[in-house]
Amino acid sequence: MMFLTLLALLATSVLSFPADTSPNSKHLNKRTFPDFEDWPPGSDADKQKIQNALPDAIDLVAATISDYTKYKPIYEKYFPEVDHQRVQNVFKNIVSDPNNAGTGEARLKECIIIGLDVSKGNPGGDPCAEGAEAYTIPIPPTLIDPGQSQTATITHFCPNGLKATPRYSNIQCGDLSDTTSVKMDFLGATVMHEWFHNDAVGKAATGVHIEDINGINGYGPTNTRNLRNSSPNDCLKNADSYTWLALEIFWTKKCSYNDIPHFKDPADVQGGTQHPNSTPASTVQPADPPAAPVCAPVPDGGVKDAHESKAKLVANAFCDRFARDTVPGPDVNIEHMLWSTESSVGRGGSFEVVQNWTRDDSQDDVYTVSVKSVQDCPVPDGGFNLAEPVSGNKCGDIVYNAWKNCNNQGRGGTIQAGCLNYAILTKY
After folding, report:
1. CA 9 to CA 19: how far, in whole Å?
2. Which residues contact 301 (CB under 8 A, 6 or more apart)?
3. Strand, coil or helix: what is 317?
4. What mean pLDDT, rounded, does the chain reach?
5. What is the pLDDT of residues 222-261, one digit of tens each?
6. Omega into 289 within 30° of 0, i.e. cis?
7. Half-sphere exposure of 220 (CA within 13 A, CB side)
8. What pLDDT was estimated at residue 283?
9. What share of the chain is helix, strand, coil (3-state, %, to 5)?
10. How many other C-beta atoms lie within 10 A of the C-beta of residue 71?
11. Taking a C-beta distance cutoff of 8 angstroms, is the pair 104, 117 a contact?
């Protein structure tokens, strides 16, 4: 068992480990999920979210290693053919039999997931503060736990990582465009990505430690495809190349697409030979001023009430909490389900609150609010300003207007502002 005293020791030397620390058989009783260690009080919800994502990570791996011949054209988008067997072996170190995936191979027990951020405040590198989704570092055998495996790792999920779509079941095939994009991504993919950094998973199959090539510039569907074209020998060492290979195969299978590869390359992939369906440069113009809303249809049957004052509160709360920053492109996908309700205080008094919606029953004033980049629309110089995408037009006003300016019983709508779509839609 690993204790906080060990983690305190690790926190003082985390950057000295020789691995990347940047954001950066058929018997089920031989299978296991990773251990969870050192979760501070109040972090149960985050822990549960990651635990719920573990089966999704296994499903993602299992989908990738079956039917290689059929899906070889997708492999070729991310790795040279000479490396395909080693790539397959990396995934098989997680799930050896895709028809009996279970909970993963026993080596996953060594991929320990911790709730304590051991790099927090480290002047030599604080991945979460720098915007990472998660980070993984090795644990060398110590006097505290001399039986620890040489390849054990600890992974911590940062707040940014926990904002990911929780489960792939939250994504519908109709939500995806015909281009590889972050709309495909979910928390289980981040879990899987971090497993590749464990040498019992990655290096044991490839002979090289799997890292994050070029840091953040090795992440995402565009950068991984650019890496394939510009530095093909580095793909075997880049964790997100495996991740996007898996995501593209997974959604091709789940959505029953028979044209392989179905998904086009991102429009700004540079160099190399693109898939013949690839689209050229940006074709959608920024909306300045913001466009008129595209309003949601009114569903058949009864709907829950949506009140103007509460829709406005939700719009402002979403923007204050989740859309305050300028972020790099090309992909933005931020979505949260929020509920505006009254909370009592004192002797019969009350005030309005906006909180995350986590219940299963239906209520008035539950909204899905999002900001997402517009496909094939150019990224502004300096990135996307989520708080004010068009000069003089604030996020809160845009989201509120997407609700206010739709005559559809308060169901809400979507407004394009610049190259971002802001949406507020009632849940019930």
Report:
1. 17
2. none
3. helix
4. 82
5. 999 999 988 999 999 999 999 999 999 999 999 999 999 9
6. yes
7. 21
8. 57
9. 35, 15, 45
10. 20
11. no
d(CA 204, CA 284): 45
pLDDT tens digits for range 260-303: 999 998 876 665 433 333 333 445 789 999 999 988 887 777 78
The burial class, CB within 10 Å (0-12 / 13-18 / 19+), for 18 is exposed
CB 208 within 8 A of CB 237: yes
Cis, peptide link before residue 261, omega less than 30° from 0: yes
Please give the pLDDT value at position 204. 92
**pLDDT higher than threshold 90 for residue 127:** no
Bond prior to 389 in cis (omega within 30° of 0): no
More confident residue, 28 or 65: 65
Q: How many whole angstroms separate alpha carbon 200 and alpha carbon 291? A: 52
Rounded Cα distance between 208 and 86, Å, is 11
At residue 168, what is the residue type? Y
pLDDT band at 85 (very low <50, low <70, confident <90, very high): very high
3-state SS, residue 196: helix
Cβ neighbour number for residue 292 with a 10 Å cutoff: 13
Contact in structure between 263 and 252 (CB atoms under 8 Å): yes
Residue 335 β-bridge partners: 370
**What pLDDT sits at residue 124?**
66
Residue 29 CA to residue 234 CA, distance in Å, equals 36
Contact in structure between 228 and 244 (CB atoms under 8 Å): no
**Token pair of 205 as six digits:** 């199959």
Neighbours of 100 (CB within 10 A): 13
Helices (H), 17-165: 44-65, 68-78, 84-92, 159-162
Contact 339, 355 (CB under 8 A): yes
Measured CA angle at 147 (ends 188, 44), to 5 deg: 35
Confidence at residue 360, expressed as pLDDT on a 0 to 100 scale: 80
143's tokens = 């006097």
Contacts of 344 (CB under 8 A, 6+ apart): 350
- 93, two tokens: 């170190």
**Which of helix, strand or coil describes residue 112?**
strand
* Cα distance between residue 318 and residue 312, in whole Å: 10
Q: How far apart are CA 247 and CA 200, in angstroms?
A: 22
**Amino acid symbol at 242:** Y
Distance CA 425, CA 413 (A): 6
Please tell me the predicted confidence (pLDDT) of residue 128. 86
